[in-house]
Amino acid sequence: MDRHEGRIVVLGSLSHDPSAPFNKMAFKDPKWRTFFPDGTGTEAIAKGTWSTTQDDPAWSGGLRRYAASKLCQIMMIPALQRRLSSSPLLKNISILGVDPGTLSNTTLLRRGPSFMHFFVFRFLMHLAAIIGVWLAENSPLRTAGKSAGDVVRAAFGEFGGERPDGWYFDGSKRADTSAEARDEQKQEMLWRDTVGYVRLEEGETILGDWNEV
User: Fold this and answer.
1) What are the Cα distances from residue 36, in Å, to 44, 53, 169?
2) d(CA 171, CA 12)
3) Which of 34, 58, 105, 115 fits a disulfide with 126 by CB distance 3.0 to 4.6 angstroms?
4) How far is C-alpha 160 from the chain's CA centre?
5) Which is it for strands 102-103 and 173-174: parallel, antiparallel or unpaired?
């Protein structure tokens, strides 16, 4: 990592935001719309007891678990950036996030039904993505080439002389994260609990205030 102008790029996802119209079906029940209700901590998500197959055996339960993982990644961005920025040694390193959009023509559904994998996902969706990107730069459905370009730009691009500390992009456009992702108290709760889950100890990281919340 280049300590003078290094960047850490985290891949986000619109799925982390229950209020997004695209996610309405998976978060129809109000009880799922907050990942970390006040006072509950992170244990349910960390230990896999949140939105289980017993709670909901349909596809929406799995999507919510995926969304929870993306929320945790996105909440890490500002929490880690605060610690990088306060470190004399690491203050020039930026961490930022990119939502690559929904990708077509990938092997994501390789274990699903052949019809869905080959015809719907790899053909129809890929064709729709090509047309979508042509019509609108940040179309929700994107080609792998478009999304890869956005990630490379986040890692190496110039932003008018500004440092992209803690920034988040929807493709090539700067964007806001969800209200819960922006909650600093929850960011710090997640940081503290994660340090405990991984049993991080002194001397295992050069990050100066990793254990301060």
Assistant:
1) 9, 19, 23
2) 10
3) 105
4) 25
5) unpaired
What is the CA angle 38-35-8, rounded to 5? Answer: 110
Active site residue 66: yes
Q: Tokens in use for 53?
A: 């197959």
Options 24, 28, 47, 66, the catalytic residue: 66
How many Å separate Cα 85 from the centre of its chain? 21
Sole residue written with tokens 């939105």: 51
**Annotated catalytic residue: which of 24, 28, 47, 70?**
70
- Domains, the chain, ordered by start: 7-101+140-198 (3.40.50.720)
Active site residue 173: no
pLDDT of residue 123: 59
Question: What is the arithmetic mean of pLDDT over 76-94?
Answer: 97
The pTM (predicted TM-score) of the whole model is 0.87
Q: What do you get for the CA distance between the two ends of the chain, in Å?
A: 25
C-alpha span between 25 and 7 (Å, rounded): 35
